Structures are given as structure tokens and as C-alpha cells.
Amino acid sequence: MTRLLTALLFFFPILAGGAAHAGNVSELEILGFSSDGSIFAFEEYGIQDGSGFPYANRFYVDVASDSFVTGTPIRILLQDESATLRDARAQARAPGQSIVSDAELMANRGYTAGANAITELSADPFRMNVNPRPVIPPVDDPIEFRLEEFNLDAQGCENLGPTMGFRLLRVDLRQDGSVSLVHEDESIPQSRNCPLGYRLGAVQTIHPDAGAPSYAVLIAIESFGFEGPDYHWIAVTGRL
């Protein structure tokens, strides 16, 4: 079954015995960058399949090293049936203010140069070619990212079938189309929860007044869930 068909079946669940089965798709909120473009932040939130508990996760990424800022990610799961998504998001928001305030992130949100929702079936989930800024005619060279999946064992997933890692490539369109490696998995972290596949979700860019232009590539992870496949988000960052 193709990746797109899998996503289609997920959003229009098959009815069996009168019960609909579905996983969870995290809502993605791009928060923005620090004023110098050195930190990128985003949030995912939703209702955990199986438990019905609300959760919110905030990620703050050091752009240059493509690594989490100390003390992050911030993960909140409210194991209370009366709790709301608003409650979970508020609890995740509070500790993030000492890292980069929401006011600073909002003022430096940058530009969403490309975006493919999980429900988008006509877009290429493995290739995104964008102009980094909405300037017409363009003053920047376009940037292209390509996503490749490959089989990679994940600890604790041995009896669930093949799991996947990914590599992210950047294509230099200015000269001869040379390809450089941005990221390649050597192992799969447990937080990905036995990944089945990946797809490009968005490219966010910023050209700060003081600091180097930066980008973040948002990637959706399809993984095993309690009631069906789950979709969560990660980001790969770098300098333009």
C-alpha cells in the first residue's frame, strides 16, 4: 500500500463492527525564531489516541547545531479526563518563556515558504522546492529539499514489522544541481514510536536584521498508534 493511500485510509477510516478506528494527527503550530535566527521553535498538540488525554509538546532547536536547546523538548500530557487542550498548551507554554518568549517568537515568525498538510494528496511528500522569501521578482536562489526513507531497526519495535529512518538532502540549484546531505539517521530515538514513514510538511525561513538567514524543515512522522497510525512532527534546521 502506498504512503498516500495509507494516509487516505487514515482520514476516512474503515468501519468494522460499527466502530471507527483512528489514530492521532498532531496539530502543528510554527512558533517562530529568536530575534537573531539562532533558535527555532514549534509546537504540536492533540488528543492522545487510546487514552483521550490532551497533550502539548514544545520544541526549541538550536539552528546551527540542529540540536535541542537545553531543557527541551517540553512535553505535557494531562492524565485527566476533564482537562482540555487549552490547559495542556498553557502548561507547555509557561516554561518556554524563559528560553525564548512567545512575544519574541511571534515578532520573528519568519515565512512559511512551502507547506503540505497531511491531508494533501496531490503534493510530492518527498520533494519541496521553494523561494525562501515572498519577493517578486525573486532576489534569492531557490532552495530544494528531498526526503529519502530507508529501513532502519528501532529498539522495541522488532515484532511490528519494518521501521524507517530518513535522510534529508539539499539541492544546490545555483550551479550544477549538486546535492548535499543535511541529515541522515544513524539510529531511531524512542520518541518516534516505531516510525513507518515520513513526509515533508513545511519549510520555514527567516532573514533576521541581525544574524544569518535560517531555515527549518518540518517533517511529519507516521508511526504506530493505539487505534491507528499516528502523525507527529520533527524539525531539521540549518543556515541558508
Give the helix/strand layout.
Elements: H1 3-11, E1 15-16, E2 19-20, E3 27-33, E4 39-47, E5 54-62, E6 67-68, E7 74-77, H2 85-96, H3 102-107, E8 111-115, E9 127-130, E10 143-151, E11 164-171, E12 179-184, E13 195-206, E14 214-223, E15 230-239
Antiparallel strand pairs: 1-2, 3-4, 4-5, 5-6, 5-7, 8-13, 9-10, 10-11, 11-12, 13-14, 14-15
Organism: Aquibium oceanicum
Protein name: DUF2259 domain-containing protein
Pfam families: DUF2259
C-alpha-based Rg, rounded: 18 Å
- Mean of the pLDDT scores? 89
Largest sheet: 5 strands, antiparallel
Order of helices and strands: HEEEEEEEHHEEEEEEEE
Care to count the β-strands?
15
State which percent range the strand residues make up. 35-45%
Structure classification: mainly beta
Q: How many domain units?
A: 1
Low-confidence residue ranges:
1-21
N- to C-terminal separation?
36 Å
Number of helices: 3
> Looking at the structure, what is the overall shape?
globular
The amount of helix comes to 10-25%
Name a few traits of the molecule.
4-stranded antiparallel beta sheet, globular, 11% helix, 5-stranded antiparallel beta sheet, 240 residues, disordered N terminus, 3 helices, mainly beta
Task: Describe the model.
With about 240 residues, the chain is mainly β. The protein has one domain. About 10% of the residues lie in helices and about 40% in strands. The chain contains 3 helices and 15 strands. It has helices at about 5-10, 85-95, 100-105, and strands at about 15, 20, 25-35, 40-45, 55-60, 65-70, 75, 110-115, 125-130, 145-150, 165-170, 180-185, 195-205, 215-225, 230-240. Strands 3, 4, 5, 6 and 7 form a 5-stranded antiparallel β-sheet that branches. A 4-stranded antiparallel β-sheet has the order 8-13-14-15, with no helix packed on it. Strands 9-10-11-12 form a 4-stranded antiparallel β-sheet, with no helix packed on it. It is globular. The chain starts with a helix and ends with a strand.
